[in-house]
Amino acid sequence: MADILLGFTNVLQPMNILICLGGLFVGVLFGALPGFSATMAVAIFVPFTYVMEPGAALLLLSALYCGGVFGGSIPAVLVGIPGTPASAPTALEGKALVRKGEAGRALHHVTLSSVFGGALSAVALLICAPLLAQIAKMVGQPEQMMVAVFGLSVVIMLSEDNLFKGVMVAIISLVLATFGQDPVQGFPRFTYGFKELIGGFSVVPVLIGLFSLPEVFKMLEDPHGKMTETGTVGSMKLPLKEIFGNLINGIRSAVIGICIGIIPAAGPDIAAFMAYNEAKKASKHPEKFGSGAVEGIVASEAGNNGATGGSLIPLLTLGIPGSAPAAIFLGAMIIHGIRPGPTLFSQHASVVYTMIIGFILINLLMYIVGMIYCKFGSLILYIPKSILATTIVVLAVVGTYATSKSIFDVWVMFGAGLLGYLMQRNNFPTSPVALALLLGTNMEQSLARTLTMYEGRMLDLFSRPLFTALTLFTVFSFVYPLIKMKLRKNKKAKEAAELKEQ
Amino acid sequence: MKMKKSMPDVIISIVVLIFLGTLFVQVPAIPEISRGFPLGLLIIATVMTLYLLIRNLLRLKNEEAVESKVLEQAKTIVPYCLMIIAYIWLMDKLGYIISTVVFMIVSLLFLRLKNKILMIILAVALTCLLYFVFTNFLGVVLPRGKWINIAF
Asked: What is the ipTM metric for this complex?
């Protein structure tokens, strides 16, 4: 308790609050720019922390990380370009709300649910870290494989309207994810002779293309006269009923985010999709998803921000960096003479509790910073479509180039954009592409390793409690939406028959 | 222009099958140990695409052609795509600054922005702003042209 109070005292020092605010402002900017990510924000600023106190250094990195994860959602709502892959589900609903002239409402929900998810993950970091560390210890290759398969079950909910096409897109996208060196042997596959394809497709250029260019092409479908039109932001005020109506959804999504966060290699992006999926399953109006459902935004944002604290749990308690940002945190901590692991909480209690309490404060401050960004960012909607379309293309091109300094990736982005437009026109869902590319490599790698570990004795896998639990979840996740869809169809058919009789 | 509703799916299925075919051709060159996972997926993808093709071919027989705006929309979208292609290609040759200013002016002209002064100011200002943010603030060196190189 004394350590927690000491953490509070450290965090509430004016300089540390300023560091948190500064980190958030910069982090949100990084997240909002296409092609930049929370990981890059943390990585770029590590050298700046060399001269800082360890506590302040970790606060700065935490603020950059949380701000980066949140920032990606602002362009996702306003222009349909997810700044980071974790904001892709937000883009689905945000775009629809912008079309309805309710951008303000969408942005306020984004900010509020991000703060909620992030704060809850920080509390989990403070209270449940030792318990969650035990779960993290149980995660091996078989569990990682099941998480990837579980993640793919999201496809079923994402493509409810056209299940066959959705599954087909996911399978073809999984094939695309196998391009480049295979994750076990390193042999290059399906490269068509391009050396740029040896590393496979980068996910970020594909996502930028898939979510941004189709919006531009849709604007071009309108007659030229409409290109001078502008959008409307609408009110940012949220009725209390709407906020509290999403409370359960927010808690569920944040918990999903925290649990996904502690699993190595599964970060905010997968958490966002999974939380979105569960929200759709639990919703009374799943048919509204995809056409501006606030529940979808809340789930996605609480989920991806929930993963921020979760991803640090294995690092702080076991010394295992389960994600790229956690690995950078590990580097920064070692530079400051702090070695994460089981003894961390006793040997460096002051620094660790400063960071954890700071995580809570950072997430609360994110509301202020986020609303400022949303207020100014939403002005973008008053720009005529002709200027907006041109700017989106330039931003998509420059943002993609920035990720890898490769013109080849810019071509990939353009190809993905064109493909995404053709898919949308012909009722092929595009979200399974993102999901399959995010999960594909991890799935193949963990599958290969699991097969090696359990060669000829696959049933032994069920002696692993977490694997068994995940398998049951996965089966449920695949079957439940199908049953629900069937029941809904039967109900509709029954209603139609009754109407006919009348 | 009139088109049957299932026609786009038929065309897409054929294109996807050709693409999957090009992947099948490459499979024998992959060592057996690295082949299993992609091959399994390829087979499932091919079966599903074939099913989609056959299902839509059968539907095609009973459908009537309906009015489609595809050609009309293509008249705007295809030239714009060509402009983006030219932009990406020129970025490698002329560098970020020249290619972006040129693309923005041509794009805004194409999309009929009436105010010419605003058009030029916007093209130059946005290009420079992005250049400054990416190069000076984020440390990203934007493309320098192989033919001409303008950089600050």
From this structure: 0.92
